[in-house]
TrEMBL record:
<dbReference type="InterPro" id="IPR018060">
    <property type="entry name" value="HTH_AraC"/>
</dbReference>
<protein>
    <submittedName>
        <fullName>AraC family transcriptional regulator</fullName>
    </submittedName>
</protein>
<dbReference type="GO" id="GO:0043565">
    <property type="term" value="F:sequence-specific DNA binding"/>
</dbReference>
<dbReference type="InterPro" id="IPR037923">
    <property type="entry name" value="HTH-like"/>
</dbReference>
<dbReference type="GO" id="GO:0003700">
    <property type="term" value="F:DNA-binding transcription factor activity"/>
</dbReference>
<keyword id="KW-0805">Transcription regulation</keyword>
<keyword id="KW-0804">Transcription</keyword>
<dbReference type="InterPro" id="IPR003313">
    <property type="entry name" value="AraC-bd"/>
</dbReference>
<dbReference type="InterPro" id="IPR018062">
    <property type="entry name" value="HTH_AraC-typ_CS"/>
</dbReference>
<dbReference type="Pfam" id="PF02311">
    <property type="entry name" value="AraC_binding"/>
</dbReference>
<dbReference type="InterPro" id="IPR009057">
    <property type="entry name" value="Homeodomain-like_sf"/>
</dbReference>
<dbReference type="InterPro" id="IPR020449">
    <property type="entry name" value="Tscrpt_reg_AraC-type_HTH"/>
</dbReference>
<keyword id="KW-0238">DNA-binding</keyword>
<dbReference type="Pfam" id="PF12833">
    <property type="entry name" value="HTH_18"/>
</dbReference>
<feature type="domain" description="HTH araC/xylS-type">
    <location>
        <begin position="190"/>
        <end position="288"/>
    </location>
</feature>
């Protein structure tokens, strides 16, 4: 994938951001801008082109638009389309890497003997499906809140936006089982953990998970602790709480509705668990980052 390589010795410079919602069919206006724009899809699909290249931005997709290049909609989005948008520039400069150049860069980074803390740049892909949607959603809520809350601290929103880019970059640079960097056992665990994440809101038990993947419970527990530092039940709770955080920051659902969506039919039990994980109530968490700028044009 093609990527924008940005030095983060200093943070990127935030210019503007918001949450776009349209209740009627909508097509993005044709224009060219003097800054970068990152779009993250939330619901329905945005149909955008940059010059002659067409993109579809669905829920969880990210698209980077470059300055000086014409972009606009090539097809109407259905009612209910929603996405977050961020305008920014790069005071330290930036370099556009083609897909082959980005592949070589990622391979070089993964070949380093000591990879941790060794990268001084972020790599923003032009088009990507975000895997850690809950984590990204929380960062987005923080950015939009700080951008509209008149914080006194200089660079507050710049550093938060840079943190968002770091999360996206980590996904881009992370090795995959297909690259041969992990053993088959690791790849099997990744498959099991992803299945658990997808089904976490269901009435899932450790016994059912062990039976699904033909492991005994003790071995399953050792696997989870080896790879995540927590047992399978704690992992399930962590996924559910992350989902609840995302819903609290992004929707107006009641706490009881969010508890049910996250996999907890007992909302009082959910509130106790949420407080154990976050040291605050769901309502306190929701009120922590609630300011945003919304537009529909």
């Amino acid at each position: 994938m093609s990527c924008l390589k940005i030095s983060i010795d200093t943070p990127v410079r935030f210019l503007a951001a918001g949450e776009f919602i349209s209740e009627t069919p909508w097509t993005h206006a044709a224009r060219s801008m003097g800054c970068y724009e990152l779009i993250i899809g939330v619901s329905e699909t945005v149909y955008l082109r940059e010059e002659d290249t067409r993109f579809e931005v669905g829920p969880g997709d990210a698209l980077l638009l470059r300055p000086g290049l014409a972009h606009g909609g090539y097809r109407a989005s259905p009612p209910g389309v929603k996405f977050y948008w961020f305008h920014f520039d790069c005071p330290q400069g930036a370099q556009w890497l083609t897909a082959p150049a980005m592949k070589r860069t990622a391979e070089e980074i993964q070949a380093r003997e000591h990879r941790a803390w060794s990268v001084g740049e972020v790599y923003l892909p032009q088009h990507l499906h975000i895997e850690q949607k809950e984590r990204i959603g929380i960062l987005v809520s923080q950015i939009l809140h700080v951008a509209n809350a008149n914080y006194l601290t200089a660079h507050s929103v710049n550093y938060l936006l840079t943190s968002l880019f770091i999360e996206i970059s980590e996904q881009v640079l992370a090795p995959t089982p297909a690259r041969g960097a992990r053993m088959q056992g690791d790849a099997q665990f990744i498959k099991m953990a992803e299945w658990t994440r997808i089904h976490a809101e269901e009435p899932l038990t450790v016994s059912a998970l062990a039976a699904k993947f033909n492991y005994n419970k003790d071995y399953l527990t050792r696997l989870f602790k080896q790879h995540t530092g927590m047992g399978p039940l704690d992992f399930i709770h962590s996924v559910r709480i992350a989902k609840a955080k995302e819903l609290l920051s992004r929707t107006a659902l009641s706490v009881r509705e969010i508890a049910a969506e996250a996999g907890y039919p007992d909302d009082k039990y959910f509130m106790r668990l949420f407080r154990q994980h976050t040291n605050m109530t769901p309502t306190q968490y929701r009120n922590a980052y609630h300011k945003t700028f919304m537009n529909n044009v």
